[in-house]
Amino acid sequence: MKHALFATAVALAAASLTAPVSAIAQHAGHDMGKANPAKSEMAKKEYKLGDLVIRQPWVRATPKGAPVAGGYVTITNTGKSADRLTGGTFTGAGEVQVHEMAVTAGIMKMRHLDNGLEIKPGTTVTLKPGSYHLMFMKLKGGVAPGKPVKGSLTFEKAGKIDLEFAVGAIGSKMAPGMMHKH
Which one of 17, 39, 157, 170 is most buried, by most CB atoms within 10 A? Predict the structure, then answer.
């Protein structure tokens, strides 16, 4: 029974990762065009680990008590051999998994990538809402907007890198501080 309740909670939270958001809520995550230097700096943050360049790690805020959160990042492999994102850590989460969301036969499905996500040489992979993403599982207290959250990413060959995830609004479609065009 406990497992069934957790599975239901995860399914509901996962559905919220791609739920439509009103125009007002979307703009709330973008500061209505006002400059916010702290958020802009977090959105521009870049990390390097071997041949990998990691940009814009961010996570969506969650409602209180949510058991999961979605994390996003852009990874470029500048090397000559593939690597694989296999997981990581996130302050306040019991586990970090790499997931894929895809439409199969007209139905949006999410699945855990048991072997991680391959980052081919010379390519850039963007983990974003409705696509590949990190799933922060077994959250202890949710994720509140504002202060960045410490975590790490783990790669099969390059190893582990510590970083900070900027926190965007609930339902946000892009990293905090990133501007969009109409």
Answer: 39
